[in-house]
Amino acid sequence: MATIRLASPQTANALSPQAFVELREAIERWQHPASGASVLVLTGGPAGSVFSAGANLDVLGTTSATDLARQITQALLPIQALLHQGRLPTVAAVNGPVVGGAIGLVLWFDIVIAARSAKFSFAFSKLGLIPDTGLSATLPRFVGEARARGWFMSGADVSADQAQAAGMIFQTADDPVFEDEVMKIARRLAKLPSASFALTRKAMNEALMQALPEQVELEAQMQAERVTSEDFRAAMAEFAQRRRGQD
Length: 247
Description:
Blueprint: E1 2-5, H1 17-31, E2 40-43, H2 65-85, E3 90-94, E4 98-99, H3 101-106, E5 111-115, E6 119-121, H4 135-143, H5 145-154, E7 157-159, H6 160-166, E8 171-173, H7 178-191, H8 195-208, H9 212-227, H10 230-246
Helix pairs in contact: 1-2, 2-9, 4-5, 4-9
């Protein structure tokens, strides 16, 4: 079993352009047959800690919307392709809170298991942003359009149990046994014939998500326009002020 661990505690595992490059390289390395890996697990650490705070918006700088859209798609699409076309069964082990675009990344994995203390924060609307990392395509298919629209527009915080009940994730586990449950699933996958995993995923993706890469690009263009807008900067400034007041 190969495990990739998000490990930037100083930024709550926020996803920067460099983090996406490192994630792509790690996935690519383990997907190679010579690696000997039979299962790929992504986690953010022990149960109760943060899985990912989403995109690191502090590193976006003053780039134009066009350049930013290109950077987003160039970062995301290779990862999506490696996960959806790769040989390995993949498990996202959501150990704690996961925010914004990191949720979309999680949903690219074959099986998602979350610690019961985890929550999924659809915080886009709180900053005047739109869902990205393919979420506007994937989430409605998993939980239904009405629920997805409500979560997106209200900026909902969804508990692990709610996510499982809605069909967004496969399983939850109590925090003390979370890592054991992840290992149990990974070991089971490792014992099964491997050839069918990629074919099963391909069949399901062809049926349900054949437009996902195009959706990721569309979201990137729209998100880039939002991130470079004045009202987003104002919302970020207000958010930073509130955060300083809590320190």
